């Protein structure tokens, strides 16, 4: 698949998902509410409706498409994943966490509003994600309940939140310690939790929506794990070599924090070779789907080669 | 029902729920995890396994019992509600929010650990709540999915988180403003969201677990709304007149913040009369259940008369 065709599919999915997110956040308050929670709603909209690649929802939609599920039937689950991603960004940016002022070139929520509002924005976005996953992600409540559990497992102590905790520990944030020197296996584990788990579950969610058999579920899980790792290595390369204006966020942060990444451990040349290897591995995992998986195959290359 | 018999039932439910919470938090990490997320798990345990009345889980268990549901069949849903309650306390206590050092006579999570850990504790406890509700609250996935949505609606923008936002606004926390003077209807709306929604859904959850008909669901919703209001008025009375050592938390905070409550607006005598009226109203809502509802009837009195 050409990169321009992939761009078109990415843009179409992003439009669909953003319309769904817009609808969820417009409908969230009834007109007879008090005026004051409007501040919370406005800040939630600031956090969610700020553009971005919408990669995780795209993976849900494209994985589901392998099983003949129309994008309109996958968009609620896709939006739920994006809400979890957005909540995590709001909380990760907080002063007590990564203390970031910019996100996608705009002020972070606690800079545009305040810390208390940003904490509540993250909380309420996580809640909304589970409301959508439990209530609207599929006609069959058994599928909705399964997706709810899968999303929770990818997000909590054993997934994204646990990974963020490991990341803060690796930066030496607790007990007044210096940054920890992590072994490669520990860095990989951290990545699999912090950024990998949500990408993995995005691909798996498509299989669940499509009522895929165990082999095809497993193929999409393996694909998701592979591109999740590629995503993180590309992210670390951007942080090492990238331009802040282009990336829309500060770069050079890992080195400034003394934080070990696979790229700092193995070097940029190794990282570029590894990305090539991961793109090939992703294609292998997609083989059972034949030409129907051309978009996901192109997505793996897109993730490995991205510069923002 | 005598108050000592109610105490026994409260204690029995608390033991059951605490065993469930202990199990959930012990099982949450596999032994081969890295050491570092253990800090997050330990902080989650600090937040959850700190005693307390376990009122919300008790309401789930006792409401479900009206329909012949055994406590063991209601305890997962009960634990999920308690996890949401505990997450909200951890985040409400943060320096950017209410800035509390003590909770139930022990250091709050951000005092015992640090702010970043406390933010992640709240996040991961919310996630765990939805994992439990979506995955283990009932044999029937349709019930699990319904309970997931009900819990989310009680917790998010239109419920607990939205209510906390209103509460911060009422304290004049945004735009450098003075405390807002709220009308009685606005105070009632704030209470219904911040503390009422979760108490209401605890009672409704029992009806959903028991597959109650619409009339009995509605009766339990009305009961839940009534005792939720009584809970808040009793809480405001404790803050106005109570002793910090006995309450296990700081008192006099509402007045110090210039925060309007129903009690500050109408006076302590009105509040005590109103509590008597609410206890009678709760009994009316329970009438369809006859003597089976003796425990819930006694619970309404317990809530209205509590001093801690």
TrEMBL record, chains A, B:
SUPFAM superfamilies: Terpenoid synthases (SSF48576). Its cofactor is Mg(2+). NCBIfam families: FPPsyn (NF045485). This is Probable farnesyl diphosphate synthase. InterPro entries: Isoprenoid_synthase_dom_sf, Polyprenyl_synt, Polyprenyl_synt_CS, Prenyl_diphosphate_synthase. Keywords: Isoprene biosynthesis, Magnesium, Metal-binding, Transferase. Belongs to the FPP/GGPP synthase family. One of its GO terms (biological process) is terpenoid biosynthetic process. GO terms for molecular function: metal ion binding; prenyltransferase activity. It comes from Phreatobacter oligotrophus. CDD domains: Trans_IPPS_HT (cd00685). One of its GO terms (cellular component) is cytoplasm.
